[in-house]
Specification:
With 139 residues, the chain is mostly helical. The protein is built from six helices and no strands.
């Protein structure tokens, strides 16, 4: 799932939850929303695990390339101490790392949304108390 799709989903759910007329429904929808986002976290974590494996494989392949141990070795002979510098600047390895980091950020975004949903009951309780205060029931 793309980050934009996740953001749209969060925005849609937040808009529903902000509507004053749906305060009771919003309170009852907390478990459903938590389950929805927990499932997304699970799915995205599985993708993250795949990307971690892909990164490790790419790193090994690129290490073999730079150390001259692959089928098509690097043209230059480099010192073992310099291999890390070449790996740090390697485009294929960096692309794999960027995918991994983007996936981690998606999971962070979903985790923060779950935390916000979990605090929703507290926020709804405060909204109810505020309404009672405004109507004079609480003084």
């Amino acid at each position: 799932m793309k980050v934009e799709e996740i953001k749209e989903m969060i925005e849609k759910d937040a808009k529903f939850l902000k509507e004053e007329s749906n305060i009771d429904i919003a309170s009852l929808s907390v478990p459903e929303l938590c389950a929805k986002y927990h499932q997304l976290i699970y799915d995205e974590t599985m993708i993250l695990n795949y990307l971690k494996t892909e990164y490790k494989t790419t790193k090994r392949d690129r290490w073999m390339y730079y150390t001259g141990k692959s089928d098509k070795p690097f043209d230059l002979v480099i010192l073992k101490t310099d291999v890390d510098k070449f790996l740090d600047a390697d485009e294929k390895l960096n692309n794999s790392l960027l995918k991994l980091q983007a996936q981690e950020e998606k999971i962070n975004l979903l985790t923060e949304q779950v935390k916000a949903i979990m605090s929703l009951s507290f926020n709804i309780g405060n909204a109810i108390k505020w309404k009672k205060f405004l109507s004079g029931e609480i003084g």
